[in-house]
Amino acid sequence: MPGAEAPARAPSRDRVLPFLIKRDGTWLYRGTPVRRKPMVCLFGSMLTRDADGGYWLETPMECGAIQVEDAPFLAVQLEFSGRCGRRQTLCLRTNIDEVVCVGPEHPLMVNWNRPCCEESAPVPYVVVRKGEGEWPILARLTRAVYYELAALAVTAQVNGTSCFGVWSGDHFYPLGRSF
User: What is the pLDDT of residues 66-107, one digit of tens each?
Assistant: First the structure.
């Protein structure tokens, strides 16, 4: 019928888009770095994760799977407020300028059993936002941020294991085993 609008079509979820997010946080499009930070921030805001752990870029016009080498974001800056210990609040800024405060919705996580090729210590991550199912969207803490956290670390027992870690919002987050 002339003048009638076509019904909106939902983007298909069976495409693969030519994006790769490298371990160092660099976004590549067709092998070329995306150098405009506002574009990276925009794409990062549209990133989702499916129930199988795959990453998807969902724009209003298209949707497709993308590759991620490790975590899609980096935690590049740490700020803390309040008193030390249980009363402090740790906030992390990502490379796409999202700020998350460590707490139950944005916990710090460390897999002590995962080998790491570039660092000898376990790699800490923070949950930036939920994905579908049990797969959250994470930011890997940069080495500098990890060392800042280590300077704030205290020792505590977690499930019978002596750990060093940090407090944020009255929750303890272990960073590694105590020796």
Answer: 999 999 999 999 998 877 777 899 999 999 999 999 999 999
Query: Which residues, at least 6 apart from 10, have a Cβ–Cβ distance to it below 8 Å?
Result: none
- Distance between CA atoms of 106 and 109, rounded to whole angstroms? 9
Q: What CA–CA distance (Å, rounded) separates 131 from 53?
A: 8
Q: Is 145 exposed, middle or buried, given 0-12, 13-18 or 19+ CB atoms closer than 10 A?
A: buried
pTM of structure = 0.84
How far CA 122 is from CA of 51, 88, 110, 128, in Å, comes to 25, 23, 6, 19
Instruction: For residues 157 and 135, give the distance between their C-alpha atoms in angstroms, rounded to a whole number.
Output: 27
Local structure of residue 157 (DSSP, 8 states): E
